[in-house]
């Protein structure tokens, strides 16, 4: 619900740190709360799932939730009050696209005097095009090392800023390699740091 987009199973385990086991997934599927696609395993909320998730915004923290769980439900209660006050639907709220000024400021001005904001947009488009040329099909994961090689003529600072921006788009997922031991030196070097975590792979579903 928070990401307002289908998410690969690897996002929950590698990025969010949520242990979503197969039996949990099957239970949600049996309750018609999610849809599941294969290769890679991807989860999406059904209409019933959206309704059930929205109900949780006004719920009390369950017993044994702990400090982190209690904090989460305080935030969820704030979101519920925000939704009630604004009259905004939960799905509309979470589908809002937030633009980060910091992303724009991180991009260097080109020698020709190109506006940094336009430069970022251009690099984002080039990265999307490069991904399409590398991925066998939309949603497949591609190593950032291969992606950087495909746009090797672009400054790394611009590519990094564009990747950070892309990470906030609904159809883009940047994740770390789950088995760090298999990474080659060039694959480690090609990682982009987001949220104090190195991301090695990118998938774009559309």
Sequence-ordered SSE layout with sheet pairings:
Elements: E1 7-8, H1 9-16, H2 22-30, E2 34-37, E3 42-45, H3 47-56, H4 66-86, H5 90-94, H6 101-105, H7 116-134, E4 142-143, H8 144-150, H9 156-166, E5 172-175, H10 185-189, E6 192-194, E7 197-199, E8 201-204
Helix pairs in contact: 7-9
What summary fits the major beta sheet? 3 strands, antiparallel
Helix content: 40-55%
Number of helices: 10
How far the N terminus sits from the C terminus, by CA atoms, comes to 19 Å
| SSE order, one letter for each helix or strand | EHHEEHHHHHEHHEHEEE
**In what range is the share of β-strand residues?**
5-15%
* Beta strand count: 8
Poorly predicted runs of 5 or more residues: 98-118
Name the strands of the widest sheet in spatial order: 1-3-2
User: Averaged pLDDT, please?
Assistant: 82
Name the shape in a single word: globular
The radius of gyration is 19 Å
Task: Specify the structural class.
Answer: alpha+beta
